[in-house]
Specification:
The protein is α/β, with parallel strands linked by helices and 341 residues long. Strands 3, 4, 5, 6, 7 and 8 form a 6-stranded mixed β-sheet that branches. The chain has a two-stranded antiparallel sheet with strand order 1-2. Strand 3 and strand 4 form a beta hairpin. The chain is elongated. Belongs to the REXO4 family. It comes from Biomphalaria pfeifferi. One of its GO terms (cellular component) is nucleus. It is found in: Nucleus.
Length: 341
Amino acid sequence: MKNKNTINNNLIVTLPNGCASNKTVHLSSSPVKKEREKTSQDLNISNSQQTGSQTNDEHSLQNSQKKKKRKGSKKKHDGASNWMNLCKTLSIVPSIKATVQKRPVEESTESPDPKKMKSDVWFDNVDNILLDTEKTDIDKTTKKDKLDPLVKPDSFKGLTNCVAMDCEMVGVGPSGNESILARVSIVNHFGVCLYDKFVLPREEVTDYRTFVSGVTAENLATGEEFVKVQKEVSDIIHGRILVGHAIHNDLRALFLTHPQRMIRDTSLYKPFRELFSGRLPSLKKLTAKVLGVSVQEGQHSSIQDAQATMRLYTMHRQKWEKEFKQKIRLKKKKRKNKNLK
């Protein structure tokens, strides 16, 4: 039999006895092919090693980045847990950068005024002894001096159920002994002046009594008509308790009357008269003794006199009204007893 060469790299080896065996031996066709296979295997091994090292490096980088993120989140975003959870769900890396914008400093071209700077300066944590407090002390003393002991501060300034009235007179007639109305002043329950007007004289004034009354010819020249003043005063005192010192003289000068039960006369109040051995006290002495306030020093003021009488009344109002009610009850009982007889 003839030797045959197989195409698929299979060779039939001839034996020495001349017999051919059907056993096939797989051999490479050439040594070049073997070398190529070896080089390809080596390249595959090296590529696999490189890819493995790359994956390991990527894993290590990712782990280090996660650790850094965790550390940064603990330091910076401990309080923003909701924000961090939202970032995780959206796979967003939170980044907070505070940008502070500085305002441009405006350089003033105007020269500072020393007077303005002095008022605008404020001192913190400085001893009061080192500060200039002379001005404030003066202001406090002037305020105390301005306070009137006969007027309640920050009180109601309108009409009250109780009013006090005082009038000033001038002299008419040949000798100036007769008196006519020159000025009327009315204050409310708290001593606040409600009404103060000069009255035009209806007769020729022969004695202005300026050293006592404080009224001058100029005051009366700018006064108002008697009828108008009379009407205005009557409207004010109507239905109200009227307080005054010897108030009957003032009502007589106004040609007015007032119910006796609505009059409180400080000159007739028994406890006040007892302080002067039952005699009728003057308003000047009464206020000095009871209130410790001096009035009618030099020229009189009808406003101040009305305020003094009101203060005397309000100091003893409860006791005064209680005694007054008892007197009214006794009078009613006497009347009933007379009617029964």
